[in-house]
Every structure is written in C-alpha cells, then in structure tokens.
Amino acid sequence: MATAKKWVYFFGNKKAEGRAEQKNLLGGKGSNLHEMTRLGIPVPAGFTITTEACIYYTNNKKQYPQGMWKQVEDALAKLEKAMGASFGDPNNPLLVSVRSGARVSMPGMMDTVLNLGLNETSLKGLIAKTQNERFAYDSYRRFIQMFSDVVMGIEKPVFERIIEAKKHEKKVKLDTELTAQDLKDLVELFKRVFKEKTGKDFPQEPKEQLRYAINAVFGSWDNPRAVTYRRLNKIPGDWGTAVNVQAMAYGNMGENSGTGVAFTRDPGTGEKRFFGEYLINAQGEDVVAGVRTPMPIAELKRQMPKIYAELEGIYKRLEKHYRDMQDIEFTIQEGKLYMLQCRVGKRTAAAAVKIAVDLTKEKLISKEEAVLRVSPGQLDQLLHPRVDPTAHPQKIAKGLPASPGAAVGKVVFTAAEAEEMAGKGERVVLVRLETSPEDIGGMHAAQGILTARGGMTSHAAVVARGMGKPCVAGSNDITVYEEHGYFFAKDLKIQRGEYITLDGSTGEVLLGEAKLIQPELSGDFATLMTWADKCRKIGVRANADTPTDAKVTRQFGGEGIGLCRTEHMFFEGDRIEAVREMILAADLDGRRRALAKLLPMQKEDFKGILGIMGNLPVTIRTLDPPLHEFLPKTEEDMRDVSQKTGVPIDRIKAKVDSMHEFNPMLGFRGCRLGLEYPEITEMQAQAIFEAACELRKEGKNPFPEVMIPLVGTLAEFQLQKDIVERVAKETMKKYGVKVKYMIGTMIEIPRACIVAGEIASQAEFFSFGTNDLTQTVLALSRDDAGKFLPGYVDRKIYKEDPFVSIDQEGVGEMMKMGVERGRKVRKDLELGICGEHGGDPASVIFCHQIGLDYVSCSPYRIPVAKLAAAHANLKGKVKVKEMGEK
Amino acid sequence: MATAKKWVYFFGNKKAEGRAEQKNLLGGKGSNLHEMTRLGIPVPAGFTITTEACIYYTNNKKQYPQGMWKQVEDALAKLEKAMGASFGDPNNPLLVSVRSGARVSMPGMMDTVLNLGLNETSLKGLIAKTQNERFAYDSYRRFIQMFSDVVMGIEKPVFERIIEAKKHEKKVKLDTELTAQDLKDLVELFKRVFKEKTGKDFPQEPKEQLRYAINAVFGSWDNPRAVTYRRLNKIPGDWGTAVNVQAMAYGNMGENSGTGVAFTRDPGTGEKRFFGEYLINAQGEDVVAGVRTPMPIAELKRQMPKIYAELEGIYKRLEKHYRDMQDIEFTIQEGKLYMLQCRVGKRTAAAAVKIAVDLTKEKLISKEEAVLRVSPGQLDQLLHPRVDPTAHPQKIAKGLPASPGAAVGKVVFTAAEAEEMAGKGERVVLVRLETSPEDIGGMHAAQGILTARGGMTSHAAVVARGMGKPCVAGSNDITVYEEHGYFFAKDLKIQRGEYITLDGSTGEVLLGEAKLIQPELSGDFATLMTWADKCRKIGVRANADTPTDAKVTRQFGGEGIGLCRTEHMFFEGDRIEAVREMILAADLDGRRRALAKLLPMQKEDFKGILGIMGNLPVTIRTLDPPLHEFLPKTEEDMRDVSQKTGVPIDRIKAKVDSMHEFNPMLGFRGCRLGLEYPEITEMQAQAIFEAACELRKEGKNPFPEVMIPLVGTLAEFQLQKDIVERVAKETMKKYGVKVKYMIGTMIEIPRACIVAGEIASQAEFFSFGTNDLTQTVLALSRDDAGKFLPGYVDRKIYKEDPFVSIDQEGVGEMMKMGVERGRKVRKDLELGICGEHGGDPASVIFCHQIGLDYVSCSPYRIPVAKLAAAHANLKGKVKVKEMGEK
Fold first, then answer.
1. CA A682, CA A500: separation in Å to the nearest integer?
2. Distance, in angstroms, between B843 CA and closest chain A CA?
3. What pLDDT is stored for residue A2 in this prediction?
4. How confident is the model at residue A885 (pLDDT cuts 50, 70, 90)?
5. Which of A82, A73, A64, A116 shows the shortest CA–CA distance to A11?
6. Which of A37, A567, B414, B842 has a Cα at 20 to 30 A from B580?
7. Which candidate, A697, A688, A700, places its Cα nearest to that of A736?
8. Can you list the positions of beta strands (E) in A165-299?
9. pLDDT tens for each residue of B265-311
10. A791 interaction partners in chain B (CB closer than 8 Å)
11. Beta-sheet strand order (sheet of B326-333)
12. Nearest to B265 by CA among B363, B145, B352
C-alpha cells in the first residue's frame, strides 16, 4: 500500500501543515488558523481533522477512516510537546478546545467544546499550574456544561437553572461573584445531572472525551438543523466538516484576561472602523451567549492600550492579507493576546456594497472582484423598502411572499375605500379574500395588498409584482369578514382602519406601523452597478406592462422590455368593459366593434411604452390568458356587466359557463386565441405598428418585437406571423415610414423546444417562458403546488422550488434543446428568458451558460439580474483569492 | 440540357409505356390501364399525364411544366393514328374521355369528362361515322353537360331541369325515349345556359377543350372537398393526380351497347361471387349517378352470354394477376367489350377478413400478405355491435365518440331508474348532464351512456370505456331536463321511456331502435388473428380495472394487463364511502382506519384480476387522480356524505373548498399523493401482495408489476418504491412464499423522459402514459381542447388529433428520449405504453419502431392493436405486390 492518507494537519509555533487555500479540506476556520500561524500571528497550537474524514465517517456507519485515530494521537503528542503539557496530567495538564469548521460557516452544527481534557486528576494539575482554584473549577464546570449540552445533547436550561439557584442562594448577581467552593458545588451538581440524563458517569479519560467530541462534530454535520440550513443555502451534503482541536487559551484567568469578537469594518453599514466587543475575565461563549453585557471594543483601547495596539496591528494585517473585511475572535490570557479565529465577515447588503467599493478604492481588490464580493441574492434587500429588523414588530400572520418590499397602512377591505382614503392622503393596505380586475384602482391606491386566497400567480400577486407593490398572498392565517369590517389573523381581530405592515419579501404580516428602511440606489450602489455592467455579457431587460413600468425599467437601467403583457392593460379602467364586450360578442362583427374600441387605448399604451424606451427593444406579447379570466365571476358582477353592455344576464351566465375550463393553464389561450380569432391579433398588431409609426414620424426609433405566445408548432407561429407581418407592412405603408421590428415567439411548452428548429426557420427570436415551461415539463400547476411543493423541497425531491430557480436538470435541459435546435437553423436567433426566473441569480447564471442573449425580470430585480449576470461572466475568468464565504 | 422529362405515357394496341407498379407516377387508374393493355385485355387506347405534372402545376401558379403540352400533342397524334381518327375531324372524329387518377381513389376530385372533342364540326363527323344522329346528339348533350358541370362548375340541376322539361313536354319517361331532334334542342338549350353562366361560347376547338379539362383535373387536386378527404385519410398534399385521356368507347350506341361496374367478390361480405350491375345503352356515369336503375350482373349472362363469358375470363384473370379482389368498369360498344378501369376493390371490414383468408386458402397470397390486407383501423367495426347502415336511422344529435359500439335502449335520467328498469329486463340508455361516481351502478345497468357535458376523459367517458359500454359524451346538441323527464336533442323533445340508439364510435345519437349488427369474432376473424399473432414482435396487453375487464382481456387474447387503475375500483359500491372517509379524515389515524376498510376490498379485486390473468403480467398503478375527484360535488351529495360518515357538513364543504384546484391535471395527484400520504401506497401494496401471496399459496403464479404514476424525479420514484418493496418483502415473509414482481413507473410527464436514465437506475419498467404526456408536451388539456382542437386539425396545425394518434414529432420525440436514456442505463428495461394511443394503429406502429416491448389498450381494441403490431413488423419485410390501396 501507498503512504497512508493524511487525515490530520498540525499547526503551531509559526509553522502549519495547512494553508488558507485548503478550505475544502480543512474547513474555513481550520485553514485560517493554519494561515494565521504561518503569518506569525499568535495562535494557540493545535491540529485539524479533515472534512474528508467527516464524510468517510458519515458514509460508513460512524466509523473513522483507517489511520485517522492514530494520526490524531500523533498530533496530540506533538501538541503536548509543543505546549509542554500532557493530556490528563496531574501537574501540567493539556486542555483543548474542539470546534467544528466546514467550508462555510454553518449555524446548526456542533460548535465548540472548551476545556476538554479536564477530569478529577487534571483538575488538580490545573489548580497546581495556575494557582487559581476558582479558575480551575470554573473551567471544569464550563467543560461539563458544554460537553453535556453540545456532545451529549442535554438541554442547556438544566444547568442554567442550577447556576441561577446557586446565585440566588449566595445572593449574588454575576457568575464572577461565585466562589471556588460555589463552583466546586456546581461541578458536583452538574456531574449528577450528567449521570441522571445519560445513565453514565462523566467520562474521565481525556482521549475518550476527545473521541466523544470528534464524533459529536462529525455527527452534527447531518443533524436536522444543519441539513435544513444547507438546503436553504444550497450547500451540498458531501462537503463535510473539519474538526479543530486546539490548546486552550484562557480569557477567564482574572482581570488581565478577557475575550472578544470584532469585525474589521462595520458589518451593518460597511463603514471603515474597528467594530466589536469584549468581556474581561470570560471565555468566548460568554460573549456570544450574552451572559454578561460586553463592552464596545473602543473601551479596550483605554483598558489595555498595548493589547489594543497589537490587536489593531493584527486586524489591519489580516484585512490586507485576506483583502476583505474580517470577523475575528481573540482571547487575552493574563496580558497575552491570542487569535482564535479569523474569517471573512458576514455583512448586510448595504455593507457588502460599501466595503466592496471601498476596498477597490483602497486598491486592495479590482473592480471585478468588487462585483463578485456582493451576492446578487442579497442585493434585493436594497431595492425595496424593508422592515427595520431592529424594531421587532409583532408577526400576526404569514402568507406567500408574492411581491417583495414592505408596506405600512391602515386596513381597508374594498377598492373603493382604498381609493377614497388614499385620496385623502392616508396610507392604506388592501385586504381581500382575493382580488379581481375590478380592484385594480384600489390596488394602485394602496401601499400593499394582502389576500387570503390565491397563489404566486394569482391576480393579486401578478398585478402587484407588475406594479412593484408589496403583496402577501394566500395567507391561510387570515379570515376576511369584509361585510363586518374586520379580519382575523389567527385569533387576533383586526378592525378596519387599524395599521398593519406587510413584508412582501418574507410573506409576513405585522401588527401596527413598523419602521421601514428606504432603498438607497445612488452612491456606492450606483458605482458597483456601473462596474457590474462592464463585467457582464448577457443583457438585462424588464417585464413591464405599462408606461409606468417602463419608466421604472429605465430608472433601474433595464436595457429593453423583455415582456410586455398586453392583457394586463386590458384590466385597467373601462377597458375591461370593451374586452368583455368583445368576448360576449355573438359574431365577428360584434367582436370587431369591441376591438375597435380597444385599438386606440392599446395604441396609446404602446406609444407610451415605446416612447419611454427610446430605441431599446420592447417585446410585446399578443393576447395570452384564457378569455374567461376577463369575465365577471359573481352574480352581482354579471348583473353589472349586463347593464353596462346590454347583453342579457342569461347570455352572460351561459357564456361564463360554456367558457369554464377544467385546466385553463392547458386550455384555450395563447396563440390559440389568435388562431381562432385572428381579428384580435390583427388589432393588436395594428395598435403596435400605428404607435411605432407615429413615433417614427416624430423622429424616434422605436423597436417593437412582437411575440406570439404558447406556440407548439411551426404552423401556429406561421399563421400568427403572417397576420402581424401583413399589418406591419400595411401600417408602415400607410404612414410612409419604416420601423425596425422583429417577430418571434415565446418558448413555453415542451413541444416548442422539440421543434425549435422548425420554428426558428420563421421566428427571429425566442423568449423562454419558464413559468409555463416549468408547469408543463414538471406537470406542476404553480397555483396548486402550494399543497405539496414545500414538502417536496424539504425532502430534496426538487433541489429548489422550481418556480423560484430554474430546474436545470429538467426544464433547463429542454431550454438547452430549444437553444441548440433553434440556433442550428438560425445562427443569429435572438434568445431571451421572460419567466420570473429571469430575476433569480442562479437562473441568470444558467441562462448565461446556455448562451441566451438576455434575461428579463421584474424592473425591481434588474440590479439583481445585472449583478448575477456579471458573476456568471466573471466566474472562472477573474482569478480571485479564495474568500471565506461562498 | 439532358433529355426532356417525360410527362406523358402512352398506351394502346397491347403496348404501354407504363405499368402497374408506377402508381405513384401514373395514378391508380392510369397505371392499371397501362397494365391491362400490357396483359392484352381490351382497353381503349390513350395516354396518361403524370402526377408530377400536376404537382408542378399546383406549385407554379397553374403553369404546365416545360414540354408537357408538346408531349400531350404528340401523344394525341399517336392516339389519332392508333384510332384512325382525328380531333375535330368532320368525317371521323376522335373523341376522348378525360379522367383524374391519383395514387389512391379520392372522392371529391374532378372525375370524368366524356366525349371530349365534340363540336359543331366533329358532331357531323360522328353522325357520318355512326350513321346514328340520335347517338351523336346524345353524346354531344352529355359532353356539354359534363364539361359545364365538371370543368366549368355550373351546377348539375340546371341541366337536369331542362331535360325534365323536355321529357314532360314530350310526355315521355326515359331519356332513351327522347328523339334525335329532342336532343338537338337540348344541345341548343345547354349551349345557351353555358353562355349565360360563363359569359363565353361553348369552346369549339377540341385542344382548347382538352386544355380546359386537364386544368380542371389538376385544379381539382386542391379543391376543398379533396383537401378535406386527404386530411381525413392521411393522404399527403404533394402526391398530385394524374390525368388519363382515352379514346371513347360507347355504351350508348343502342341495345347491343352498355356499361357496368362490378366487383370480383362481394365487397360487403367477401363472398366469392361476381358482384355488380350494368345498364344497356348507357354511358358509365349513368350507372354511378343512378339515373336509371341498373340490372344485376347475373342478368348480363342471360342478355349477352358471349360478352359475359369474356368478362368472366377477364375478371378472373385480373384477380389472379393482381391477387386481390378487383373493382372493374367496362363498356360494351356494339357488341364489343372494353375494360375502362380495374382497381383493388374497397370492402367492409368483414369482407376484408374473409377475402384475405380465402385468397390465402386459394394460395394466391401468403398468410403475411393476408394479415397486411386488413387495415387495423377498419377492424374496430367488427369488435362492437354497430348500427346497420342500411337502416338509415334518423340522426338527432352529435357528441364525442367517447366509447365505441352501438347501444339501443329506453331513455332514463337517473342511475336508480336505470337499475330498476334493467332489473325488469328492459334495455335502457342513461342520459345525464354529466355522470359522477354515484352513477356507477346505473352505468353498469344501462346499454350505453349519453352526457351533455364533459370531454373524452370525463367520468362518463373513462368509466364507459373501462366497462366497454358505448358512450356519447359532451353532446352540445342536447339539453337535459331530468326533473321534467325529457331532454331536447336540438329542437326535438325526447321523453323518458322513448327509444334512442347511441353510436359511440361516431358520437351519433339516433332516434328509435336502430338495427344493430353483432360482432362475429370466430371463423375467418379468428384465423386471421392467429396469423397476425405469429407475425408481430410487440406484445399486446389491455387496460383493465376489474375482474370483468380481465375476463374480456383474456377473451380478446390480451397478453397481460398493461394498466390496472386502482382508483376505478374506488368508485364502486360503498367503497366510495371508505375513500371519502379517508380523504375527510382529520389525521393519520383516521386515514389508517379508512384505509383498513379499503384493504380487503382492493385485495379481493387484485386477487380476482391476478387470478384470471394466470401467470401473465398485471401492471397495477397506485392511486393517481386528484383526491377531490372522489368528493361529493353538490350540496345534496355533501349532506348525504355527512350523514353516512358523521363528518359535519361544514367540514366537508371546507374540505371540498380547500381541495379545489385550478389545474387538477397538474396538481396534487399521482405519486404526489403517495408521497404526502405514504399510508395509501402502503395499503395498496399490501392489497396487491397479499392477493398475490394467497394465489401463490394456491399454486398459481401471479405476476404483479407495481407502477408508480406521475413520476418526474428519481427521488419520487425511489421513495415510493421503498414502500412497495418493503411491504412486498414483509408480506411474502408473512405468507412464506415468493412472488415474481416488478416495480416500475409510468412515464407521463416531460421531465420523466429527460431524466429517464436516472429513473431507470431504479425502475424495472417504464410504461408511457401518453394521455398525460400529450397533455403536458403540448400544453393541451384533453378536456378543454374540444373548443379549438378540431379547428387545429382542419388547419393542419396538428396532422391528427394528438389524443387519437401519437404526435410523433413532439410527444414521440420525448418518448424516444425516454426509451434511449432508459435503456442506456438498464438494458433489459421493460417498455410499454398504456395511454389510449395503445389501440391506435399508427401509434402501435410507432411504438414498434421505437422499440417498445408491448402496447396496452382497451380490451376491445386488442385485435386492432395486434393487427397493427403485425403490420408494423411485416412492413418493409414481406415483399408484397403493390396494392391498389394504401
């Protein structure tokens, strides 16, 4: 056999077997301990057991890999030698900390056991060595406490209650006021608890303690909390965690000892200042656990100026070395400083942006690296008003996060009320069972929308996203009693006029007026976005249905409109009446009359949108939804429509009945409408090209791209294209101008991907409609999946919610097929995506990889998409020093 | 340039430039005229213009290809020489017939113009030559009449009215009683009509007449009737038609002349007897048009024994030469026999079977050829009772042909009524708005089911097909007034108790008791099926849900069950109550209690089915449909369920509401149910394996294949398989026997095809669920497509209804992907299809081609599928003489 595999890496005395780059093998914490040791920074000696050992253990029924334990024993011996102390020694015992450390920091995994190695014998050694009985007993009780909790799973409060009881008995307030004898008593009590809870005596053999601790770290890799965290953060299950075993440094050896955590810059704002806190005479977990209130780090400068100066030198050196803001942990043992950890510090989105820009200005990183330093997913926070998390408002209900951002307002239950109160300058939140087209005015007037029913593609959700208004949809927690003027959030009754706050990014409903943080899109943010723009290849357009949306698109730097859903215009104002008239028309003439009413309205919209977008492309989709979506649903609404249109209510009812569909998603919609009623496509084409020609005559350069939806065969596309092309030519001839335009199709059903070659022979562009493509490829109704999809994601049946991030293995394969087959026939085929995935970072990266020309997303997601696009293009190209964060 | 392309082929004087094999080039009629000429059979000389010329003409704005007209003129000269007569000759004029002739006989295309070449001059020549003024004028008036109708599009009745007027004026009854002068008058009147209708004089130049006629034949290839016919019969539009120009033979030259059509065997029954009819002193179109009543061919033997003997010799020779039953046309001109056409004769399914078997017995064809002689599509006729077409019943409404076969019975409107009357021995037809699970008993009792609402997969349709009962579903023509005891079929009121007849194969509803023809499955049919079985490679199973279905499956020779839908059992009797109890259960315990009630019932079913099927495989699908399908729909039903289950009605309503789905097809169904409620899968597995083990203990060899539906990821399959496997092992252990079984999956969503490799790593078989695969690949709801799908097929957007015949370009591609990826990972993966396409001949052939192991279809379609499977395997293998039919 070849040399035995190396499972254990040693560090100490300014030498280390590992280095920062070995994060995958040694974990984030471990590799940085090795690196700091190499840099000559004071780090207690120790060793790291590799992540590979953990994976072996996980996959092999909790067996260590061959040779690992031997290597641990060897390293232990080396450590004993380095520290001049030995495990369990009655005179000079070696005590160690045991810490987990995966590639990325992962809450939920076993964290830390301190003072391991203590037992009845070594306790005496510790007393002898330190001449500090109180310290020794304090260390022992801490060890038993942590070991019991972290390694054996005995709940913390059990021990805390014993300490509280002791303090009460002794009439003291602080742990530090307990005497050596008190602590000795605690040790006895703790051991008794241990015996009770585990049926075993507290293990006395240090190596046995170590083995237990290693097993606990390894085992914690697969505990439910860790698994959940990994799922949420897309961390593969086969990374494993390393184990760091390190000689103890004591922050609890008196007033010249202490411990602290700090960030090299402000993690909340990104401001360049040393930011942290410390505790005198304490061990690390005291700071984290908030047992005592720590002091701000600035105080240390006053209290221990030499130590502070040394710390300052180290943190600046680390930031320069790692070229990023660091999160550090240190311990001061009797006036000597030890670094216990350094890692790239977590930060808010705002801080991430500022730090990235500042580091670039400080010439520590390049602009490309700065772009890569900000996670696109995080960016969304900055683009909407958000609830100030420090305000801790009361959560009263939860629903679907249907449209991001936060909204505060008084509860109203009808659109009319919303408009009326908003007219008086009041902020309102519209609360409804579900919304319908009649509510558009009220939705506009409201700050946000809350519904009890409906999914992520319900009317409320779709319209709200289009308007950029926060929306929480389909909340099962609420019951709306509109007629009584209140709603229940679980058991809490909220009256009309009471304030609530919606968090459309999380789906939370909060009681009262929460404090909001407004988005800030200039300054560093703008600078970073300029850099991102230069880094990316793939274009970013927005889904925008109205001139207002188009304006937002331009504000956010959209490079065109990738999806303009003409039908959304149909819901507004009295247009819905003309639309209904069209649907209810008994014959072609009747339809034509109603369409003639719609023509000028559509034309005005298109003129507005095309005008705002200048010479940028505007992809306009012809009518798509099932027509019954436009029809009234309740008896009352039908009566209303009957009065307005003069159509007898019986005919309306009969029509509504006859148009009912079992599966409207797979029904009479998309180009199927235009094929059955070519006059609709004709009218829409006329509106588009009259608008464009008029703008052209005004000297502008509009660029419409007409998109036919739900195409599955070449014939469908061809028949619709013929109409659009004829109308385009006729209209341009009539106006005597030429307008640049394209005619293409949405690729949103599997068959379109299969026959993409045929379709590309006639279509100038494809836009992947990944919402519907996901629904069809997965046979999964977005509106109905709520019942089981969360469980599916939990059980890893899908890696992620396929409506949030493209199912690359399934839907993505079909997209690839569409791209390949389409481009084979037409080399310059323009390719885009207009499903809501266009704003999801992972999906944007996928789109970049399969060679799309652009993504299109909600206007408010444009910066997210741009940044993701830059990441996609930079990754693998820019040589970036390994960061502590993924 | 090379030699000019040959557009025109001459035949005459026992020599011919073409032959029978050149059907594609010369058309069916043309190639057979050439062939008969070669055989020395008396055929008037002539020439054929090729189908390629027609296609050129169609594609090139009605221009002849270069050189064609010159070749026509040359052939004409040759014909003049052969006949010793010339075009427009005042003494001995050449007259010709012009007939279309495509590869296959195609009604709707221009048919025949006779006597072309007649004008004022040649008329005189004809008189001079024949010394028969009356004959000459009769020929002339016929020519003008046909030319006007067929070439110029002037409606026939115009001329017929003129003839009638003349006969009335002359007080005669028969055309033959009109004198030469009368006919001369008619000619003048006809010419005047021609002038009035076309604005032009009747063309006098024979070559101009010919050009007109050729153009009319070419043009008729694309007339709407022909296009429709081609669509219905799957004939490509680029085949074109040939034009046959042939010297006239006259059947109207007196009592020693005549014309007739005949079949060499009885086309209705297949009986071996000369079968046809003739008219003395008439031209061919008189027989076809039914102007006079023709005489049976046997009469000719008496009337013209020499001619009859010659004809007998010819027909026997032709049948032997072509080795198939022939359809012939002949003319007798003054005692001389001419053959004008021979082609393979059309026949009923029954005749096709008998003739194929007889010809084999006569050693004219092989068994393989016999199998190929019967069209699988046609066979379905023989498998169900059918309405006797000779009875001409009154059609009163039309709906979807939801389940084939014919049913006669008295109208009833409720299941209870149906059961009650059937109990008294009455035949009833159940007429309902739509059916629901409560109607099962009534559906069983009824002869057939008629519904006003619902598609091809509505409850009525699915259950009826399962029961093999005729069903006409979703008839928009009917309005049901159950409470009043009548329904309207359009404006006709049908009372309870009146007889109606349903034709589930066509979707027609007929008034009264139509005469039915019962299927005959023994004799020649059985013989042919035995031969077919030997010819095919691919297996044929049936979709069978009950022991009754299983019996039918065995009767029809099914080689297993390819789909046993366990949920169909759930609808029967009081099981639905247990199912509802399960759905309404508040928790797992409640569900388990309800499932425990279902277990013995399911077990009994499985035992029944597995028992009947012996050692043949039985593919059992675990629960598939959305659970809300089992819940009551009306307030009344809910109250009923509430009483039976003790669940408060409010909870039932709330449950029904909460389970509502926008797109149930894409919702909470299939394996998604089993993943959320593993206890259901568990119970079903237990029922299957307990049944199988009990049979095994009885010494039988049951072979269940457990099929997980709606799988889209490996994880879904794996999680369900784990349950089934565990239960299988536990049960076999409990019973102490081993049962042969497999666990596989239905491939019915696009993602399953994409990740088929992964799934095959765990699945032992795939069964393509092409119903749902079609719905998802095409984003087409089968229940809703009725509104636009017929239009789609009309406009050739789909070549065929994709729910009837597999959309090979789209769905078929996904299937191929599934097959390839699956077999790559598991070589012996068993592959089948269980969508309703399994009974469609074209789809069976496709399945054979992509390498499936079996198809599964309705038990009643087994013979169709078997025959199609044999065709698939024989085609391209067996050298078959070109047939006259596709």
1. 46
2. 18
3. 53
4. very low
5. A82
6. B414
7. A697
8. 241-247, 258-263, 275-280, 295-296
9. 998 889 999 998 899 988 776 666 556 778 899 999 999 999 999 99
10. 675-676
11. B295-296, B275-280, B258-263, B326-333, B336-344
12. B352
Question: How far away is chain A from the Cα of B795, in angstroms, using its nearest Cα?
Answer: 9
Q: Which residues contact A356 (CB under 8 A, 6 or more apart)?
A: A365, A369, A370, A371, A373, A374, A524, A528
Phi, psi angle pair for B162, to nearest 5°: -65, -40
Which residue from B663, B713, B776 is facing A797, i.e. has the nearest CB?
Answer: B713
B868 contacts B806 by C-beta, under 8 angstroms: no
Measured CA to CA in angstroms, residue A503 lies from A396, A427, A778, B108, B222 at distances of: 12, 15, 30, 68, 64
Q: Which of A629, A753, A780 is most worth mutating to test chain B (most B CB atoms within 10 A of its CB)? A: A780
Does residue B668 belong to the interface with chain A, where contact is any CB pair within 8 Å? yes
The H or E element containing residue A590 is helix A588-613
CA A373 to chain centre: 16
**Which residues are A766's β-sheet partners?**
A745, A831
CA distance A785 to chain B (A): 6
* Residues of chain A found within 8 Å of residue B785, distances taken between Cβ atoms: 667
Cα gap B565→B466, rounded to integer Å: 10
A279: which 2 tokens? 């505790």
Asked if B276 and B262 count as a contact pair (C-beta separation under 8 A), the reply is: yes
Helix/strand/coil for B579: helix
For B645, the token pair is 């289950």
The sheet with strand A478-481 has its strands ordered as A478-481, A486-489, A492-495
Give the helix/strand (H/E) hosting A856.
Answer: strand A854-857
Q: Which two tokens stand for residue A498?
A: 């009471």
User: Residue B592's CB: how many other CB atoms inside 10 A?
Assistant: 16
Q: Within a 10 A sphere around the Cβ of A631, how many other Cβ atoms?
A: 22
Radius of gyration over alpha carbons of chain A, in Å? 33
Name residue B49's beta-bridge partners: B8, B243
Measure the CA–CA gap between A319 and A364, rounded to whole angstroms.
9
Q: Are strands B241-247 and B46-49 parallel, antiparallel or unpaired?
A: antiparallel
Are A645 and A594 spatial neighbours (Cβ–Cβ below 8 Å)? no
Report the pLDDT averaged over residues A588-592.
Answer: 92
Distance CA A371, CA A385 (A): 23
Q: What average pLDDT does the segment B821-843 reach? A: 95
Encoding tokens for residue B157?
């009745």
CB contacts under 8 A, A 325-384 vs B, are none
> Which two tokens mark A667?
């029904």
Chain A residues within 8 A of B665 when measuring between CB atoms: 662-663, 666, 779, 781
Alpha helices by DSSP H, B503-659: 523-535, 547-555, 566-570, 575-584, 588-613, 635-645, 649-658
| Residue among B662, B796, B798 whose CB faces A781 most closely | B662
For residue range A260-311, list pLDDT tens digits in order: 989 999 988 899 999 988 999 887 766 665 567 788 999 999 999 999 999 9
Number of H helices and E strands in chain B, helices first, is 35, 34
d(CA B832, CA B851): 9
DSSP A703: E
Give the burial class of B233: count Cβ atoms within 10 A of its Cβ; 0-12 exposed, 13-18 middle, 19 or more buried: exposed
All residues at 6 or more sequence positions from B232 whose CB lies less than 8 Å from its CB, including other chains: none
Cβ of residue B713 closer than 8 Å to a chain A Cβ: yes
Nearest to B516 by CA among B347, B410, B391, B383: B391
Hey, what are B504's tokens?
A: 């589930």
CB-based contact (8 Å) between B481 and chain A? no
